[in-house]
Amino acid sequence: MKNIIITLLAVILISACSDESATTAPTQEVINAAALNDVRGYVFNAWAYDIPRDNPGDCPDGLNVTEEEFLSEEYSAVRDEVKRRYNSGDREGALSLLPPDACQDPLVKADPGHKTLNGPASVAGIDLDGKHSTLDSGGQCAHEDFVGADGELGIDNQHWRLMGCVAGYRPDGLFDRLFSTNSSILENGYATLLEITLIEGTRENGRVRAQLFTSAGPVSKDANGEVVRDMSQMVHEDPMYRSAMFEGEIRDSVLTAGPVDAKLRFKVQALDNHYYFRDLRIKADLLPDGSIKGILAGYWDIANLFDFITEVYIGPVHLGRAAANNIGYMCAGVYHALPRLADGHPDPDTGQCTSISTVIQFSAVPAFVIQPQQLAQGSAP
Amino acid sequence: MHKTLPLVTLLFTLLLTGCSSGDIDAQGGPVAMRRLTPEQYRNAIEDTFGSNIKVEGRFEPGSRRAGLNAVGSSLVAVTPSGFEQYEALSRNIARQLVSPELRGTALPCQPQSENAADDSCAAMIVRTFGRPLLRRPLTEEEVSVRTRSAAEVTNARRDFYAGVELIVISLLVAPDFLFRVETAEPDPQAEQANRLLLTNLSLASRLSYFLWNRSPDEQLLSAAEHGELTDTEGLARQVDRMLASDQLRGGVRAFFEDLFLFDAFEDLGKDVARYPLYNARMAEDAREQTLRFVVDQLVTRQGDYRDLYTSREMPMTRSLGPLYGVPVHAQEGWETMVFPPDHPRAGLLSQASFSMLHAHPGRSSPTLRGVFMREALLCQTIPEAPADVDFSQFAQDAEAVHKTARDRLKVHATKSSCKKCHRLTDPIGLGLERFDGIGKFRTTENGATIDTNGDFDGRKFADAAGLGEAFAENPVVGACLVENLYRYAVGREQANTERRLLKHLEGRFEELGYQVPALMREIALSEGFRTASRPKENT
Amino acid sequence: MSHFHIQRKLNRRGFLRGTLHGVAVSVALPFLDVFLNTNGDALAASGAPLPRRFGTWFFGCGMNPARWTPTTEGENWEMTPELEPVASVRHRINIISGFSVLLNGEANQVHRTGVFGTLCGGAPKAADTVEGPTLDVLISDQIGTRTRFRSLEMAATGSSRHSTSLRNVNSVNPAEPSPLSLYTRIFGPGFADPNAAEFVPDPQIMLRKSALSIVGEDRKRLEKLLGHADRARLDQYFSSLRQLEQQLELQLQKPPPLEACYVPKAPGETVTDTEIGNVIKNHALMSDTLALALACDQTRVFNMLFSNRASSLRMPGSADTHHTLTHEEPRDPKLGYQPRATVFVQKSMEAWAHFVKTLDAVPEGDGTLLDNCLVMAHSETSEANSHSVMGLPIMIAGNAGGRVKTGLHVSGIGDSTSRIGLTMQQAMGLNIGSWGTDQNETNRPITEILT
Fold this sequence. Notes:
The complex is a heterotrimer of chains A (381), B (539) and C (451). Chain B has 539 residues and is mainly alpha-helical. Chain B contains 24 helices and eleven strands.
């Protein structure tokens, strides 16, 4: 209450004394730093798929093969000519020699099969459906849960089942290396923002309201290449990248919040898409230095997932197949495996599950989340 | 477009308050030849040729005297290296002017033929550019020598525009352009033979550089040509016109850039291992922030100078957000941030620009900050350190006994040879220690709490905001500004014959509510500004 | 020693008629100096000796006298810890120790007296005065008027304000702040390759000279308006104008071929600041460019600044600069000196050795460029902690075209450093018998190093 009075007084004083001037206009509202303490913003400075390690026997049938290996005869027959045409600038001609591209049209190929990860594995995650599921427990979306890092049962991470036997997703694989250099943050054209408002209690033990956003632009980096703290990040203008408000609580400085649906933009190298997570939850530690570290766990819409991994372009060139070959899977295989492994949001008519449980490791540092209605009339630069 | 307070209000205020400084008898010191600063050079190019012409090149460094480049400009010459640079700049500008894209609009006339001489067009070019550049009308001789040479080159090269290049270069390297030569004539009405009056043209230059940091515009030049600046009314008309103009912002800004030693930003380097947040853009924006803050308060709001030390309203831009720990709404440009009443940021002294400048590359320096405050803001001289000093007790690292700057500087307070000066600089510098070497707020150093309590000439303060209040209440602050602004205006330290005038101006500043544009008016209409003594004959 | 033939005609009218596209143009020009001076550096005839060059090399915050100053004199002086880095070039340099700026009752102005006392021949009397132009300016007044640049100043620290070369306190010659700016100034537009097969004078030159001569006519009018002090400044302005005119005149004629000269590759953009790694890198790049500038006779006087007065050199990640360390770092009881501060002394000596080697690596005549150079390395202080101006560290490299022998250590026993300044000027052919002011006035050069 006191804060509101101070705010009002300041506003009155300012408008009484100041001249209208355009070169530096006064703010439309006075920023009261005390009031800000109830609202805290964060910008993500680390983002990685959880990649469990040290679990021998994950893939007893070996890792997935690429289309190049699967169709090795067809590929080797055309390889030299493809290269020749590509190098002479005839990209279209080069690609026309390859087998039909299931990454662009997944139904063009029969299901070549896809090896999934077996075994209990110790993973990070949350028991999203509240059930300790096994394949035997039945139902159309039956799946085997994992064991958590602290021994909790019922952890849902079907995404890991799906991709855990793909070379690029394994420990020390391509994704592991990308995540360890933090390129999903530092090379990303956009950032993920989280805003937490305390509605009751304290920052150690209380209730909160939260919201997830994609930002208008990339993170700011300091001289060490690390994400700058306390930068003002404007949210993206498209409301599709703003989640609904969702509730949560803090207990002994551990935040749990959600579920919420969120679309989060991702633009790194050749990939420009968004994640569509459903019933996403956050579980993270609020650290003494003001940062947050933990996991996002929720259901990744499988249509969006397939689109995400295949719709990769450099200019006009579709690179989904090249990415699949590089990372170690076949698009057709994944396409047909997805509904088999999906474990969330069954279609009301068919019962077919349409989303797949996924876990993201993240951390975030303090930032100011700037929303459009707070925009002051700034001057010309 | 912003509006300054209506002129009527200003004049009304002046009429009601005390006698004008024009009535105080004072005689100025010697006139001097003053070299243009880089900014003045750029302004002259912009005013004469338009903003399409780029000024690309280096300028040789100026020199500070009495704390001001404006005073040093009366002492510096042009070195061979400096002249090379001026000539290169002038060729570059000339080349742009005659380029096919610009020659149609940038030149006042086009020749009858592009391949032959055209004396009347050449002469028009000489006059059109020469007048604003040399800040006076050109003589016939000056015009004809250039027209002749231009014709020679044109005929040799079969290119009229080669002649134009020659004309432009000859104007831009002319001593009359690079230097403001002030001249004074005996005052016909004075009893003393020694008393000189600045000529109208010299007065126009002096006035225009004081108020706008630019060469006289056509209106002022014309008034000077007609001798209108000789009497007070004619001069006041021009002064008031110029004070009401938007260009006043540039003039006030230039003064504070000089006073605050902001040219040191050019050579500023910070250790990025210790300050990874720092970058050149941030430094540039911190500099800009302080200048906008000052100009907003003093010109836009016609506010009290003393409020600069306590105001919690500061311009903010996105790059400075993380440094100040505040949200910035605009993605580009500037907005005003109002810090709440108990916030540590308050006033000029808490701003990042000073923290950055008066520091070492790897740490803050209370002494350097204290020296700046004493010398620039309080007009007190702090002598250099004595030669035989032993500082071996002051190691920086956390293992040492001394963790904070206050601990390290304590010994200076006890040793007699150090005490004399350090008791002036350190207590106030230490008041700002919660702002580190790049101006970021902190409460500890090497794990120990930073204590910002101190005493400023008898007035206790607890922190930077308190120090700002102490400054606002200190009468020396206003008096020092008057002294600096006067020296800036006349380009030299005050002469004995001006002491009384300065005392009077200090009183007027207070009467006028510490309004800087009003003070500028007083100075511009004073006897000291318009008069001069004979130049010194010894170096 | 190789000879080169000058085809210059000392015909004034030959100069006055430049040709622009084959059409003769006559432009009023001031009288040109004849290519002879009293020192015998006759360039108008064959058999001419190679030019002598003079330079200063400045490093800030001195050294530790106990570790730097050799205890024995002469040719076989005993190596000391801080001179180790120059061991490989000791035969090309002279170590001059024990000379001081005599204070003459004036205050020791920290980081000023030591440098401007040595360079100007007397202890400065006030914080904003010096006793005269610096050594390099005096020498360039004699030998610099006929080269494209009267002198060249450069600072490895990246700031044009870091310069010890001045005519007076209001006329400090600014330093080139980066390797690229130095290179561009010398080898960029305006450079005429002496060894180029063809020579086409730039038609723009005549235009530029015309512009300058127009301005020259303003002199008398302005002088009448000015007081004494301003007249002196106007004089300087016109001297600087004259220097550029001479530069342009040189560019109208094909320069005589120079065997040692070639155009080096341009350095790229570099980070310029006081961080030691960057300073060392920029110093090396600038040294390379300077060596060829000398070989191509673009200038005969230079001033290289490795670190500034009150050295701002710093290690990355350090809160301290070299200067603050000299004052605040405790002396290590076992070592007997300040370890972190002394690292910068070592780096400075290494850089000096590198500089000497760079000049020695350019073949010229029967030997190297260094044979025909005379470079004075010095600092504003000996022991920085106490700002001592006694026993200043001075090193002289090069043989000045045979006039100076090297490889010696000479100790000054408290004599004034003006003896060194006198020696330098005499070795460069200036006809002076004494130099310096007050206590620092002397007529005794350091004969031990003169041949």
